[in-house]
Amino acid sequence: MSDWLVDLSDEELFGNEMAEDEEERLFTSYAYERVEFQSFLNPATKLKVVRAYKGEGKSALLRWTFLKLREFKNVIAHNAYANSLAPNLAGASEAECIRLWKESFIRVAAAAVGARLDFKFSDDVLSLREEAERGGYVERGFVAAVLARLRKLPGEPGNVGAADPAAALQRIAGANDLQIWLVIDDLDENFRDVESDCLKVMSALVAMRQLCNEVKELRFRASVRPSTWAIIKRKYEALSKVEPYVVDLQWSREQLELMLAARVKSYLSRNNGPAVVSGKIPSMSAQQFVAIAFDDPMPWGKKEIDKGYAVDDEHADKKRSPAVVISTLARYRPRWMIELCKLAASNAIKRRQQKIGLDDLTAKLEDFGKTRIDDLIAEFRAQCDKIELMIQSFKGKPERFRTDELVRHMKNNLSGRDVRIAGISGKPSEAEMIRFLFQIGFLTARRELSSGDYRHYSFFDEPTLLSDGANDLGASWEIPSCFRQALQLSNAARRMPR
């Protein structure tokens, strides 16, 4: 395996960071299937909503689900962006918005079924075929041409489609033992914390749940961001009946290593004859695949405990697998990981290296961090319009704080700035601002262990920290590695290995 090489300049090596934009042949060749993804194919669960931040794999999961569904003969699957289906909700009440979404979903489902129906002379088939043709799912065919000619006769009705698409849908699907799955992505695209956007997302989710009960042949798979959910959940009681169908998506270092390995494995299978002929590919481990493209091991920080990775001068000679370094710098977001790998590959090429090393991963870390900060600001501005001010207040400050130091920082830098956080009445306390930054991943909790090591915790690991405004359970707080150079933290350069 030592002579197996990858072309770091090949764009197909790490693939597209946007799953929805990737060529299908490449996406299917490297898509990493987590065990829990199978639940999205379970027909017994009619509604499932994946909740994750930008870049954490929502679109990839939904695309994977759609492609898998196409393999079932009794399933008609249709995928779409929510904005392409959204009805005109201007001036509509909550009940009207839900009704309009239901009508939109039913017509899309009817059109999808109509596009698959063989020609038969029945009112239901003809009406669904018309829905399909009007929606552009099939070309206008013989049936439509005949009907169009007939409707030119005096007194004939115009082409209005199915009078009751839901009833026709149920009769046709039921008679043919069909399931209709609608896979809806980007439900909260460009979401803002304003009434119209909140109503749009809430009513779509409620409409999905209600339709699943009203039309037994229908299934929905959709996505939403946690920041959006946090805002709308507090406004609309109806979402409490949707929450049981919401699934959170986070990533561990092991899972990200498997994802990265799948891309290298796919590349070797497509491009490296000796690797294929050797017959070794099926039995190789994830770490072995990653080591073909990256130096392994790399010098990196103190002893890891779960997600606890850091860089420390005293322990700078410690060695870690590249997956540890990459997942740490990418904050456990798959999209950020792929972007970082591409930047590192570009730097390795300039250095005329055949593998990516630590210097390549950290060479562009300041620019990478600035982009990641921009991502956080864009993603969470709807939840807190002063988020940029909050983040930039840490510029030039230390990377680690005790809770009392962090409270003091908030008082000194954000007092009188009229900070507001969605879901919190009035002005948030310093502890509530800390919890917000913890929740969005700008801060990580750190707890020292009796062994002399330490452990890091994300918000999903310890969601109760400071929930009462005071109890930090002995944790301190760190700004993650990927943001440190961008914010020119006082000890960032010293702690970043070179």
In brief:
With 498 residues, this protein is α/β, with parallel strands linked by helices. It contains 21 helices and eleven strands. Helix content is 44%, strand content 9%.
What is the strand and helix layout of this fold?
Layout: H1 24-30, E1 47-51, H2 58-69, E2 75-81, H3 82-85, H4 94-114, H5 123-134, H6 142-150, H7 165-175, E3 179-185, H8 195-214, E4 218-224, H9 226-233, E5 246-248, H10 253-271, H11 273-278, H12 286-293, E6 298-299, E7 319-320, H13 322-329, H14 334-350, H15 358-363, H16 365-380, H17 387-392, E8 400-401, H18 403-414, H19 430-439, E9 444-448, E10 454-457, E11 476-478, H20 481-484, H21 492-495
Parallel strand pairs: 1-4, 1-5, 2-3, 3-4
Antiparallel strand pairs: 6-7, 8-11, 9-10, 9-11
Helix pairs in contact: 4-5, 4-7, 4-8, 5-7, 8-9, 10-12, 10-13, 18-19
Description:
The chain has helices spanning 24-30, 58-69, 82-85, 94-114, 123-134, 142-150, 165-175, 195-214, 226-233, 253-271, 273-278, 286-293, 322-329, 334-350, 358-363, 365-380, 387-392, 403-414, 430-439, 481-484, 492-495, and strands at residues 47-51, 75-81, 179-185, 218-224, 246-248, 298-299, 319-320, 400-401, 444-448, 454-457, 476-478. With 498 residues, it is α/β, with parallel strands linked by helices. The strands form three sheets. It has a five-stranded parallel β-sheet with strand order 2-3-4-1-5, sandwiched between helices. Strands 8-11-9-10 form a four-stranded antiparallel β-sheet. The two termini are 28 Å apart. Mean pLDDT is 85; it is low at 137-162, 303-316 and 493-498.
